[in-house]
Amino acid sequence: MKTHYDGKVAEVWVIGKTTPKPDWVEEAFAKHYIVWMDNHVRVLMSALNPSVSTNLKSGAIGTIGGGFAGYNMYVLGYPGDVLDVTNHRIVSAKQFAKQYMFD
């Protein structure tokens, strides 16, 4: 779903096993960039870019050596949290309500 954060359009997904999944989320699950672990998801943030659908199709992620650089590559999200792929963050429902706006 699209929303606005800090005056700019942001692409988000409300984390949940039964919540609607945009195409980029489905593709990220298929590539194991987002994985369910018990009652939460583990997200490989370094693989998710604002134009994630394009990057997933082209494989344009990671480093030249094939690995991922940096720490904090994985972020955990729980049902009801919101994954903001545009800004590379997971926020609680409470933070989302305060910081994001719909048209």
Q: What is the topological layout?
A:
Layout: E1 2-5, E2 8-14, H1 23-30, E3 34-37, E4 40-44, H2 52-58, E5 74-77, E6 82-84, E7 89-91, H3 93-99, E8 100-101
Antiparallel strand pairs: 1-2, 1-8, 2-6, 3-4, 4-5, 6-7
Describe this structure in words.
The protein is an alpha+beta fold. The protein has one domain (2-101). Helix content is 21%, strand content 31%. The chain is built from 3 helices and 8 strands; from the N terminus they run E-E-H-E-E-H-E-E-E-H-E. The strands form 2 sheets. The protein has a 5-stranded antiparallel sheet. Strands 3-4-5 form a 3-stranded antiparallel sheet. The radius of gyration is 13 Å and the shape is globular. The termini are close together. Mean pLDDT is 83; it is low at 52-69.
C-alpha termini separation: 12 Å
CA-atom Rg in angstroms: 13 Å
Strand order in space, largest sheet: 7-6-2-1-8
How many distinct domains? 1
The fraction of residues in strands falls at 25-35%
Oligomer: single chain
Count of DSSP E strands? 8
Helical stretch tally: 3
Q: Please estimate the helix content.
A: 10-25%
Describe the biggest sheet?
5 strands, antiparallel
- Alpha-beta content class: alpha+beta
- Taking pLDDT < 50 over at least 5 consecutive residues as the criterion, the unreliable ranges are 52-69
In sequence order, what are the helices and strands, one letter per element? Answer: EEHEEHEEEHE
Name a few traits of the molecule.
alpha+beta, 3-stranded antiparallel sheet, single chain, 3 helices, globular, 103 residues
Brief synopsis:
This protein is α+β, with helices and mostly antiparallel strands and 103 residues long. The protein contains 3 helices and 8 strands; from the N terminus they run ββαββαβββαβ. The protein has one domain (2-101).
